[in-house]
Amino acid sequence: MRFRLRVWLPITQLAIAVALTISNRMREDRIGNPSWIKFDRQICDSLNGPATIVRVCLVRLSAHAFPEISWVNFILETIVYFALIVVLWYLVALEISVKGKQGLSALTSRTRMRAIADMLLVAFGVVLAVFGKLVRQEFGGIPTAYANLVAAPYFVWAIGLISFYAHDLWASRKTQSVGLEADQ
Question: SS3 sequence, 66-127?
Fold first, then answer.
């Protein structure tokens, strides 16, 4: 069951992302009605919020580094984005399927600097919340039901990351302090 989740969750999410991206690419892209504001693109991006933030940063960096090379953006918007989605959902499946000690993170427990990894993931959750707020305001500045619907997954990602990794940080510190007291 654990192995199946680690395989099928990323594959399923990738298939959904590919289908939504193809649907969006088939739309006419006009200045007055750009395809990036359409529901299929927005839902794909928000369901894969952490991968979307990394993609947006990479696209912005490439626009500064390679302003005249348009195919770089296409590669970042498709191939790299899809790879990020697979990695994201594999890590989610890994966290779900691997039981850490006392409910702790399976991923950060494998790092030498666990506290720093937890703090960075909590900070990334805050970035997701800020990004969700920006997405919510990008539709004319007035929060509508559509803007709230599109931004909601970013806030869910943010709440999930912040609560899970803040709890992990607290629990790992607690177990370390108990271990130190036992050593004395």
Answer: CCCCHHHHHHHHHHHHHHHHHHHHHHHHHHHHCCCHHHCCCCHHHCCCHHHHHHHHHHHHHH
